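ok trying this again, last paste got cut off
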Amino acid sequence: MSLAPRAVLVHRTTEYEELVARHGTHGQAAFFLASRGRDIAEVSERHRRARRALAEVTSAIPLAWRRTQVERSDLDRFLFAPEDVVVVVGQDGLVANVAKYLDGQPVVGIDADPGRNPGVLVRHRAEQAPVLLASVGSTGADELTMVEAVADDTQRLVALNEIYLGTAGHQTARYRLGLEDDGGAVEAQASSGVLVGTGTGATGWLRSLWQERGARLTLPAPTEDRLLWFVREAWPSPATGTSLVAGELTAASALTLTVESDRLIAFGDGIETDALELTWGQTVRVGTCARRLRLVG
């Protein structure tokens, strides 16, 4: 007998909860904010909206389904199962946070605070949850392209928006950059790091770099098997060049980076605590990932 689906509700600690945990009581948190010109009423109201949305989505889960919840900080310790239906209740970034831990499970994005989020990934409201969950097996889903970095020691990192390669302190990174489909061209570089992003990431960090470079490249669509990459602040010197600073990667191509520093890292979607550790002489390959994020439309 096949198992009933399990609804996994993904959420994050609210700003109000973090404030109360840090200061001990509601009153102390209110005093702290007031001393900085802010009103705790605004923060607590956002907290109430987030918790109402979570409760409303929880009540919409079909009775025959199993259910559980996981907080964002626990994602790296949570074991997702093939039959899971992942329901993200929160912000767009929370979908990106969970994407790297999935392998084909459908994801339903619920906007916990409509009007404050762009709604690129959390596309639905809490009141739509009953219909969405009842039809999740038959509703179409967008297959969003992801990016991966694979080191020569088998370390692997997957991200939905972008992968950054550089130093942990965002100081000068030294490496050799190459393109697999460019006749083996390699350039020694010193820069603030390299960013490789997807069409989903083109709504965030990747877009800011794209705009700075005069938008000569076309931004990929979220479902397109194409990535853009940019070198941040490449420094010209007798030993380092600046000719390879931007480009695109198709599904059949990849960017390679060989470390020429004591320590570089690669992290995805802004989460530096979950990073690949790279040392002198190591090579990492960055390109499109075979896995996709199945986001229910």
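PB: full thing came through this time. Residues 40-59 form the longest helix (20 residues).
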